[in-house]
Amino acid sequence: MSVSSAEAVETASQDQTTPPQPLSAAPRSWAESWPIDTSLPRLYLPNDTTSRAVGAMEVYTELMHRIERALGATPPTTFVGSRGLFFLEPLVEVELPTGERVAYGPMRTSMLTKRNLELILQGRRIAGATLGPLAEHPHLIGQQRLVFGSCGILPPNDLQALRSQGAYGALERALLRSPPEVIDEVVASGLQGRGGAGFPCGLKWRTTAAAAGSPKYIVANGDEGDPGTYADRMLLEGDPHRLIEGMAIAAYAVGATEGYVYIRGEYPAAIASMRTAITQAREAGILGPRMLGSGGPFDLRVAINGGAYICGEETALLESIEGRRGMVRAKPPYPAESGLFRKPTVVNNVLTLASIPWILRNGARAWKKHGTEGSPGTVVLQLGGSLRTPCLIEVPFGLSLREVVSGYGGGTPKGLKLKAVQCGGPLGGLLPPRLLDTPVSFEGLKAAGGLLGHGGIVVYDHRTDMVDLSHHFMEFCAHESCGKCTPCRIGSHRAEELLQKVLDGEGSPEDLDRLRELAHTMTWASLCALGGLAPSPVLSALEHFPREFEARLKRTGGGA
Amino acid sequence: MGWEAVVAEEASSPHPSALAALLAVQGRVGYVPAEALVAIEAQLGVPKAELFGVLGFYSDLRTQPPGRHVLRVCLGDSCYARQSPKVLAAAQKALGCQSGQTDKRGAVTLGTVYCLGNCARSPSVELDGEVIGDVSPAKLTKVLGGLK
Asked: Per-residue b/e over A409-426, b at no fewer than 16 CB within 10 Å?
């Protein structure tokens, strides 16, 4: 639950016995006394954090009130996660007698006239918000939703509905094979870690399977700390059972009996949704003493971060689950051999584990048909910043950055000019417009000086001051450094101060040299990727926008 | 359930965690009172010195009661690209306090956060645990004016 939220505190003290309410269940303001007329078409309502953040609940409540007033009853409703087309939220989908779903969005309460309500309930056009069937929406047509296939379509906490659509079918099949066979399938798929490092998932599993020590653990890293990323959040809220299924398969493959889903405190709805799903999986016998009645014991718990970016680094994350400061551990030993409580532990990103069910159901070969040679499968990109239609997309690796930013992202809003694209979050790089033909893949972005990272893509327009942005990055690193190693702990502060000096118009050319030197030291001498990569966006700003820095240097003395 | 019960609950879990206990206490009463540290030390066997270390490390934890509302302005990269420094400035002006402080009326504690995961509809703020998207300085000033 949100640790700094006064409302969460209030809710908690009112609910003395029940666990935190799943936000994906009907919110309190929805009167249960409303009569439901099942002859009316069912409404599907996204209940994702971003939907609510732009007023979805107000729109839904008003919609139901008005239908009730007009017809004396309300249609049946189902809350779902988001499809990721966030620029269309608040969104309402109506299920026609044919089974087809017709979407309306972005909806405003002013659109809810009596005439429009009649049209909506028949799936007919209304002015300004008719989208038709979403599957045919231009934003979804080109996508390949392998991991996010159910998100926004199926209700996240209706286990029966999910199972009727194939959820946990991959686990059932995996349990019929031997653990080494399951690992071989994952190795063959070439699935790389989706957290940022891109390490081959199957090799990690193989190491843990062979490691001595018991019990073994599976840890899902849902500490989605990279600013500009939100895929884990969307999946945890919108399809948590897919993650549980992936973790259960991993547990069977490596012989683990316990698991943790580590989620950042900034995601209270994801935490609630995940907890509900775990309880459901336990009650259904999927988790527990015998997985699905035939597997070994496996159970899951949720652990929560308290607002520390570094805990997304796997060893700091393990320290955090154990209850301590999130200080990075020296590697080796790697967590695969000595991880949580010093036992063999698989630490995988949420998206990595959520990819497993599809791979086990359809086979490694089918997975490899998507993507590129060096980056098989699909990539989940999260678009943000100065764009007209920011959204989450799941596409094959290899599209160009231009197709992503100008196509799916819709380009910059009217009157704003694209200045730089940040790939890979605070540890990635800034790419200027001339590099927009770079292919989006692990190898493509790396070659261009960016990073795929967790798939966050943030667009900056011409209003962005690159010196100020660089300062922003270094301030972030200084704030989030765990303090264990000197290059990162001290270096980030010194770099932040140097950039502040330049911002203040007091900088000299030597200061920029010092900044580069400092970045070099941090890159090569830091213990983990935070200190090692945090200078990257600053270095890329210096490389691609040198004049902005030079223009800010002190005019007097040797500054010529 | 007060904070005493959540400490006891964490202490009886299979792998008791000081961080989980501190977060649970704050979840109940809004902050970590000094007495709770004594209880966690006694029941989880974690020395107080280590508890202070944990308290200082995780930026969500606080040892003082917050105002009646908690506002956090997102400083994530997408929000930054969409002018979030102006949103923060508007909050500081409306509340007359800096990040980390509570306004004079005791109504709102102001903080910042690096990313709320609402990047597609940024800039964002979080008010009492609920995210508000598409925020402008004017919209936020209006929201803050309505808080008691």
From this structure: bbbbeeebebbbbbbbbb
The ranges assigned to domains in chain B are: 3-57, 69-145
Residue A352's pLDDT band, with cuts at 50, 70 and 90, is very high
**Can you name the CATH fold of A378-461?**
Ubiquitin-like (UB roll) (3.10.20)
In this model, does residue B147 exceed pLDDT 60?
Answer: yes
Question: What's the CATH number for B69-145?
Answer: 3.40.30.10
User: Which residues in B lie closer than 8 A to residue A152 (C-beta atoms)?
Assistant: none
Q: Do A382 and B119 touch (CB under 8 A)?
A: yes
Measured CA to CA, the distance from residue A346 to residue A250 in angstroms comes to 8
CB contact under 8 A, B119 and A458: yes
CATH topology for A33-141?
A: Glutaredoxin (3.40.30)
A461 to chain B, closest Cα gap in Å: 7
Give the whole-angstrom CA distance, residue A70 versus residue A77: 17
* pLDDT at res. A224: 97
Decide: A377 and A351 in contact? Cβ < 8 Å.
no
pLDDT at A557: 53
Could you tell me the two tokens for B122? 């940024």
Domain ranges of chain A: 33-141, 159-368, 378-461, 466-550
Opening angle at CA A118, ends A113 and A121, nearest 5: 120
- For chain A, the residue count is 560
**Dist CA A340 CA A278 (whole Å):** 20
Tell me which architecture the domain covering A159-368 has in CATH: 3-Layer(aba) Sandwich (3.40)
Q: Which of residues 90-109 of B touch A (CB under 8 A)?
A: none
Q: Which fold has domain A466-550?
A: de novo design (two linked rop proteins) (1.20.1440)
ipTM computed for the complex: 0.97
